Amino acid sequence: xxxxxxxxxxxxxxxxLEKPYRxxxxxxxxxxxxxxxxxxxxxxxxxxxxxxxxxxxxxxAALVAQGKQIFRFDTFGDEIFWTDKLMMNEVIxxxxxPVTALSVxxxxxxxxxxxxxVQGIQSGSISLTSPATTVALLKLDAVVGVxxxxxxxxxxxxxxRVGITCALCHSTVDNSFAPGIGKRxxxxxxxxxxxxxxxxxxxxxxxxxxxxxxxxxxxxxxxxHNVDGISKPVVIPPAFGLExxxxxxxxxxxxxxxxxxxxxxVAEMGGQGSVSEPRLNLSITNGTQDLVSDKLPALQAYQLSxxxxxxxxGSFDATAAVRGQLLFEGAxxxxxxxxxxxxxxANSTLHPASDSxxxxxxxxxxxxxxxxxxxxxxxxxxxQHAPYFHxxxxxxxxxxxxxxxxxxxxxxxxxxxxxxxxYLKSL
Length: 427
What we know:
Layout lengths: L1 H17 L6 H21 L6 H22 L5 H7 L2 H8 L2 H6 L4 E2 L5 H9 L7 H9 L6 E8 L2 E9 L2 H4 E3 L7 E2 L1 E3 L8 H5 L7 H8 L5 E2 L3 H4 L5 E2 L21 H12 L4 E5 L4 E5 L9 H10 L12 H12 L67 H11 L6 H13 L1
Helix pairs in contact: 1-7, 1-8, 2-3, 3-14, 5-8, 13-14, 15-17, 16-17
C-alpha cells in the first residue's frame, strides 16, 4: 500500500511539473478564429476574394471548435447528479484505480499525458493499481468523458467533484499507447464501456438497483430506464457520419441531432436544464439554471463534422465486396431501405417495429420511444461498431446478413451471404 502511495505521488509530481497547457475554451476558439482570419487577410492581400463566404467559413470553424470542447469537456453541470446524488467522487477517489477503470471500458487520452507520466507508466514507477493515480489522471483531463475537480487538501490531491461528458459513451481511443490508452477517436461508440457497472459503484444505490445496472453489460445503455423504469438496454450508437441525416436515433425521435443531445444532457447525464417530450408525457427540469440550451448549436456542429471512418486497408476482400455490392442493390434487397449516399431512408420514412430484425422483443424498444417506430440505420463506418441491431443480437456482419436472409426468405447462398458481408465491411 505504501508503494502505491509513493508511486501515485510520483505521478502527481509529474502532473505538477509537466501538466500540458490547457487553455480555456474561449482562448482556444480565439486562437483558431484568429488563425483563420489571418489566412483570409493573406488571401485578400494576394488578390483573393474577401466575400461573405470567408466570414461564414470562419464562423462555422469557430462553432465546430467550440462544439469540440463541449463534446469532450462540458458536463452541463451534471456534477450535481454524479457527485451530490451518486457520490461517485468518493468511490473513484478511494476505490477505482486505473486497472479497474480500464476494465469497465474507461479510456485514457494519451495526448493529455506529460512525458514524465508516460515514462512513469512505461517504467512502472507510476502505479496503475492506486486510486490516487486515477485522481492524477482526472486532474490532467486525461480520462475520456469524465471531468473531475481536484483540490489539494493537506498536501494530497482529493477528487471533490466529478461529472461526465458526451465523450464518455461516444468516444474511444486508438490504443496506440496501450489497450485503452491512446489518441481520441471522437464519434466512435465506446463498445467497451460498461456504463451499468460504473453506475452500480455508487454507494447510494440499493442492491436491487445495482443488480439492474450490472445486468446491462459492456457497450450498452438504456436511455429510457430512468424515465419508464424498464430495463432493456441498447448498444451505444456512433456519433459520426450523421451529416445530412435528420432522424439520428434508433427510433427516429426528433428531426435534428440537438433534439437528442438535449434529451441526453438533461434526462440521462443529469445536466442543468430542461427537456420536454409530450409524446412520452415527459417533462424534466434540473436546477434553476439552463447550462444546456446555448451549447446545443455548437455541439451539433461538431458532431456533424465527424466523418465515418473508412475501412482499414486489408480488412475486407475487395473482389468479394464488388460482388456483394451487386447483391446489396439486387437480390439482397438492402437498397430498398438503405438508399442513396447516406445508406438510409430515415429522412423520409420511419418503419413499424415489425420491420426490425431485432423484433419481436419484449418489451419492444420502439414502444418505449416517442415515435413508436424505427429508422433505417446508416451504414457508413458500420465495420467499426459490432455488435449489430439495436439490441446487439448480431455479433458480426455475416450474422446480420444471415438474419435478413432467413427472416425475409431471400434465398441467398452461403457464398452470396459472405460476399454481401464483405461489401458491408467496405463501407
